[in-house]
Write a structure and sequence with these properties.
It is built from five helices and two strands; from the N terminus they run αααααββ. With about 190 residues, the protein is mainly alpha-helical. The N and C termini lie far apart (about 80 Å).
C-alpha cells in the first residue's frame, strides 16, 4: 500500500514542481537545471562510490566486515537512481543521500529496524556473538539453540595421504577384521 501511494504521490509532486519552476524560470532553464543535476549527480556518484570502495577494501584488509561501506554503497546506488530520474523532488532526496552524516543516521535507523524485526544469530566456537548488553552469550548445549558441538572439528579421513575411497580402490578389499588398519601396499593377486 505504501509503495502504491509513493508511485502516485511522487509523480504528482514532480509534475507540480516542474510547473512551479517552469513558471518562475521558464521552459529552457527548467530543462537545463534537470540536465545539470543529472550530470552533477553522476560526477558525485563516481567520486563517492570510489571512496566507499576504497574504505571497503581497507576494512577487508584489516579483517573487518565492511558493513557501513555496504550501506553507504546502497545509499549511493539509490542516490544515483534518483538523480538520473528527471525531477526536482527526487533530485533533492538524491543529493541528500550524498551527505555522509545523513547516510550514517539512515544506517543506524535501518539496523535498529532490522534488529527489531528480524533475528540473526552468529556462532563462533560454539558461543553466540551478540553485541547487545541485555543478552548473555548462549551456549549450544542449552535448550533452544542449534545443535553445534563445542571444540575442534573431527579430523577428515581424506587428509590422510594413504586414504583411498572404497569404490576407487584397485587394491585388495578390506574385510571387517582389518577395520582401523591401513591396507597393505602389496599388489593384488591375479
Amino acid at each position: 500500500m505504501v509503495f502504491l501511494l509513493a508511485f502516485l504521490i511522487i509523480p504528482l509532486l514532480e509534475i507540480a514542481t516542474f510547473i512551479l519552476v517552469g513558471d518562475l524560470a521558464g521552459l529552457w532553464p527548467t530543462l537545463g537545471m534537470t540536465v545539470v543535476t543529472a550530470i552533477l549527480g553522476a560526477a558525485l556518484l563516481r567520486s563517492q562510490s570510489f571512496a566507499t570502495l576504497k574504505r571497503a577494501r581497507a576494512s577487508l584488509d584489516r579483517g573487518d566486515l565492511p558493513v557501513n561501506e555496504v550501506v553507504d554503497g546502497l545509499c549511493l546506488l539509490v542516490a544515483g537512481a534518483l538523480l538520473l530520474t528527471p525531477g526536482f523532488v527526487t533530485d533533492a532526496v538524491g543529493f541528500a543521500l550524498f551527505v555522509p552524516p545523513l547516510r550514517r543516521a539512515l544506517s543506524v535507523r535501518l539496523f535498529a529496524m532490522l534488529r527489531r524485526h528480524s533475528e540473526v544469530r552468529v556462532y563462533v566456537n560454539g558461543t553466540e556473538l551478540d553485541q547487545s548488553p541485555s543478552r548473555r552469550p548462549r551456549r549450544p548445549d542449552r535448550p533452544g539453540t542449534p545443535d553445534v558441538l563445542p571444540g575442534p572439528a573431527a579430523p577428515d579421513p581424506r587428509d590422510d595421504p594413504d586414504w583411498v575411497p572404497e569404490d576407487l580402490s584397485d587394491g585388495p578389499s578390506i574385510d571387517e577384521s582389518q577395520w582401523g588398519t591401513k591396507p597393505s601396499k602389496s599388489k593384488p593377486q591375479a
